[in-house]
Amino acid sequence: MNVSEAHELAARAAKHGIRMTFSTAKPRRLPIAGDRRTTKRHGEQVRVHSTHNGMWIVSGSRYVYDWVSINDPRAAQYVKAAK
Description:
The strands form three sheets. The chain has a three-stranded antiparallel sheet, with no helix packed on it. It contains two helices and seven strands; from the N terminus they run H-E-E-E-E-E-E-E-H. The radius of gyration is 21 Å and the shape is elongated. By secondary structure, it is of the alpha+beta class. The protein has one domain (3-82). Helix content is 24%, strand content 29%.
């Protein structure tokens, strides 16, 4: 939907007493495996998929992640990909 279509839709809705609000802000970035963070206590960490018996854990149709140290064997594939 482009801007003119949005204005036309809002105008039609206003005739019926409906208020429509449009936002042009960028959506919040979703977490993905390979994201990095640095903390005072744990140092540099990378986000990895949580696994159980070799399968990724999913909750509410979304993956579950763990933060692990860069030196952890689970982080190896994500550290190489980021370099």
